[in-house]
Amino acid sequence: MPALFTRLSRRRELLRIPAHLLQEAVAEGWSKWPLETGGILLGKPGPDGHVVTDLIGPGPEGRHERYGFTPDSDWQAEQVAARWATDSNLHYLGDWHTHPGGSTRLSRLDRSTARDIAAYEEARQPNPFMLVLALGRDQTVRVGAARLINDRLRRVVVHPH
């Protein structure tokens, strides 16, 4: 029995995201290339992982830079409130962003952002997900994600469906 427990405890967590939402994020990323963009992930916990049900972009006043972006926080808050008004079971799961010409590896700033989210009481998310879309110069897209657990970002499996 101990070997089975060890195997199960090492299993990576699953983040499910509908293909159309993933494509929406990718399209937003290419529209800002070679600058970064991103937004918010909303969803629900499921029996075999969390499910992203909604994606919110950077907003009209978002600022996009080569190695970072600043969202239009007021606009995002309005969007989240509107979605919660129609589905109070939604959870803020974390953030998504792009790495133009980069990798899915999370940067020091990404790690700091995850910790800030976890510490921000209004987010009600002590273990946020960070979804990264690496947009390659050769038009490739790689997807990676991690979740902050015990103050460490741990890789999760992203499953488009």
From TrEMBL:
<keyword id="KW-0479">Metal-binding</keyword>
<protein>
    <submittedName>
        <fullName>Mov34/MPN/PAD-1 family protein</fullName>
    </submittedName>
</protein>
<keyword id="KW-0378">Hydrolase</keyword>
<dbReference type="InterPro" id="IPR028090">
    <property type="entry name" value="JAB_dom_prok"/>
</dbReference>
<dbReference type="InterPro" id="IPR037518">
    <property type="entry name" value="MPN"/>
</dbReference>
<keyword id="KW-0482">Metalloprotease</keyword>
<keyword id="KW-0645">Protease</keyword>
<feature type="domain" description="MPN">
    <location>
        <begin position="15"/>
        <end position="152"/>
    </location>
</feature>
<dbReference type="Pfam" id="PF14464">
    <property type="entry name" value="Prok-JAB"/>
</dbReference>
<keyword id="KW-0862">Zinc</keyword>
